[in-house]
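Predict structure. Chain length: 358.
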Amino acid sequence: MRQVVVHVVGARPNYMKMAPVYAELAPRELVDQYLIHTGQHYDAKLSDVFFSELPLPEPDVMLEVGSGSHAEQTARALVGLERAFQDLEPDLVVLPGDVNSTVAGALAAVKLQIPACHLEAGLRSFDTTMPEEHNRKVTDHLASLLLAPSPDAVDNLAAEGIRGDRVALVGNTMIDTLCRLEGRFRALRIAEQLELSERGFVLVTLHRPSLVDGSLLPEVLEQLQAVAERIPVVFPVHPRTRQRIRALERYPDIRFLAPVGYLEFLSLEADAAAVLTDSGGVQEETTFLGVPCFTLRATTERPVTTRLGTNVVLGLDPSRISEVVDALGTDERTHSVPPLWDGRASERIADIVVDWLE
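Prediction complete.
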């Protein structure tokens, strides 16, 4: 008897995490798969492009929850996902990451007595001001199957009383996607097209409310302008960030770009001298690629990247952005890849899911 697995994606990072899992489960005769896209990210460059660049089919269900407050977005996703689950009758719901769509999926599933699997379980920033931290914790405590990307994530779950057969250390599926696409994104040579030299520019990506919704953004831009006077700065601007920048012409040396596709971004990331970010996934990608990363956040839920990789957490302190340039060419930190970040996490996950369903 075939089992039904429903995958829920909603935001840009979810697609890269879910795609290799979907691909690995596809040839398994036991499983029928369905894909629900909540529409939490709905800009074409942040959403639609991934279904052409990744091994993901067009979604079977589109909810179009759109933007709004955390409560509004989560509530719309919860209602839509409940109806979709009732129609599809899944035996397992797979939920990646920590966005509002993730916790809505966990709530909808558990109230319908459907088992949920949390992909990327156990990550903790221990920063209760981050909405994602609450999404992660609630999802982990509702899930029946928890797939952890790193040993510290397993330890975090154990500290909260979640252990045993429910938890498996599998590695990082975002690295699976990066490995599978490496030939394609390196061949693009986007930096060369922008007349930038390899390792001759700083790449910037910023979108979190703590940075772009308050008083910090103008100071961040002033600091980036100062960096750009020393080394080129390339800044693909997230739509919500763009809405809050009053005048791009005030920062003439920053190369502002429209949102770029995933492959284009990876091409820039791989060739950058350094990356300044507030993204979680970028911290992981740069660690694997060996590109120095500077995280403009107070905390990180991926401390493995600071211990083993290339990541430095600057705090929410724009004045420290100058450290990015100061560190270039002088950084002697060793770089190593965390355990099981080997491009085969999705194979392990597919085996675990099939065994669990059986």
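Summary: The mean pLDDT is 92.
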